[in-house]
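Request: How about a record?
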Amino acid sequence: MITTSTRARSARRLASLLAARTGVHVVVRYDRPLRRYWVVWSNGPDEARMRTIALANATVVPDLDLGELLWHRSVS
């Protein structure tokens, strides 16, 4: 059974991995009402690129269902 804390650790790991690969600050946070994780960043790569990087590194975050993530890029 996967616990919330295990998913939370994987979410932090994914944020660090995406930030290291892209050079932008990335946050992966849980949305309680939606019961899903958001991947949030400013500027940098578009959503398609971020998804590609995440999927290429899926083995590093096996406790997250990458297909269920929500993605949001803001542009300043």
